[in-house]
Structure of Histidinol-phosphate aminotransferase:
Amino acid sequence: MANSFDLTGILRDNIRNLIPYSSARDEFKGEASVLLDANENAYGSPLDGNYNRYPDPLQQQLKVKLSGIKGVPPRNIFLGNGSDEAIDILYRAFCRPGVDNVILVPPTYGMYEVSAHINDAAVKKVNLTEDFQLNLEGIAEAIDANTRIIFLCSPNNPTGNSLHREDVETILANFKGLVVIDEAYINYARQKTFIQELTEYSNLVVLQTLSKAWGLAGLRLGMAFASEEIIEVFNKIKPPYNINQATQELALKALDNVDKVNEWIRETVSEREKLSTKLSSLAFVLRVYPSDANFILAKTTNPRQLYDYLVEKSIIVRDRSKVELCEGCLRITVGTPDENKLLLEALDEFAFAH
Ligand SMILES: Cc1ncc(COP(=O)(O)O)c(C=O)c1O
């Protein structure tokens, strides 16, 4: 491993010295018939199931199941209340408020910046290039002694493309802080995940989520994959019961459906390609960007007018036309074949009317 990354060197002192909360379920982990340790309601719950009991703070069963699917040991997995919880914890652990900074590469997912502001971490922006790839020189210049994290998103939201793997590897090998690769859309990508590289790069954190391909945005289950040392930091900071019992049970059940998810992924990718081709043929669409995700970024002649027209037709897309480098663009999530058909019909009507 070329990178001489030192995790303890970037960990905030208050976190290093923190004595974490020790819950009743942390202290007693075995099976017992009389549980009088957690001030729960021993009589039961109004719902069927064990909801009167606190859930497993470390979600062991769920992690074992995810481990089988992802090929990463449970000790390298953190589960959060959506990926957004993992993003927030990264700031709280590694960025001293008012002192440290992170590098963001816009246009990208908005929560990295919001979370930075919440945690009073400075943001250094190094825009992606015109073809939405990393500006490696710009990033190298932006790094200073207080740069703690570089957030990358691949496939990137809202542009849809994957970042060149060699560029990401260059950053991983040279940056002495954490490199977070948000792979929320990886299931739709041609490029392979970075989670197999955890042993190669000790500064790597990969984020994934059940909110996209797995169809479980409502459950709120985000995953962070990283070295055991980093995962221990996450576990130290997180609220004791951050993943509720219902989410743990439902996610366990849902994870039995890999085949169904793979079928949805195949269909979404096929619909994405069809939709991209059709969008490209429309006169008011100037450019359709190649997508590795479940959405398409399209540059149009008059985005606001088109957006409003679609709203009138009860079709909602995302107006990204005010976002730097995305001027004129709408971001369109790939729907079901029926939904995509309705969208294309509405677009044809718009072409006819304008
Ligand atoms: C790149 C990216 N990361 C993370 C998320 C949020 O994931 P979660 O639902 O797990 O918080 C999104 C949601 O749109 C996203 O686009």
In short: Residues 258-280 form the longest helix (23 residues). The longest strand covers residues 147-153. The mean pLDDT is 96.
